[in-house]
Amino acid sequence: MFTGIVTDIGEVHALEPHGDLRRLRIACGYKAESIALGASIACNGACLTVVAVQAADGRTFFDVDAGAETLRLTTAGAWGVGTRINLERALKIGDELGGHIVTGHVDGVATILSREDFDGMARFWIETPPALARFVAQKGSVTLDGVSLTVNAVEANRFSILLIPHTLAVTTFGDRKTGDALNLEVDLMARYAARLSEAR
User: Fold this and answer.
1) Which of 184, 186, 191 is nearest to 110 (CA)?
2) Whether this model's pTM surpasses 0.70
3) How many structural domains compose the chain?
């Protein structure tokens, strides 16, 4: 479980395909001794399991395996050496819930339609896959590339978000541009509310 509050920006250092499985080595700013084997780390919003950890040349590296489903439903299949990704460690009991409840289970890939920069901020219009549009509501929460964000406006399969300077500085959104793909996780409560409505 996560909150959508990014705690580090990692970088893909190496990748190794094994058929439908891809092993990724990610450089990060976390201390190696603080990362346990089997720990969950959200990588651009996708919850991945740590399978190896090492420290070398003053840097920490951890390995994760992205399986076929992860590669199909997220942007992980397009990551290459040098790709910068938002990282968040799993929530601990007693941690501050600064964003919203995030599972790390990506629902699909959204696309940036436009970016408008002003006064140090940036407004993005995002297009969602049609099947996920019903879960996005004005003033509701979404997770994009692991970042908890508030929806400002909704128009059919599009919605807008406004990022403040701090968010642009401490996440990969500072580099995002029109046409970029983003991992989208819809709000957990919206998903269950829709399911309960369907069941009735």
Assistant:
1) 184
2) yes
3) 2
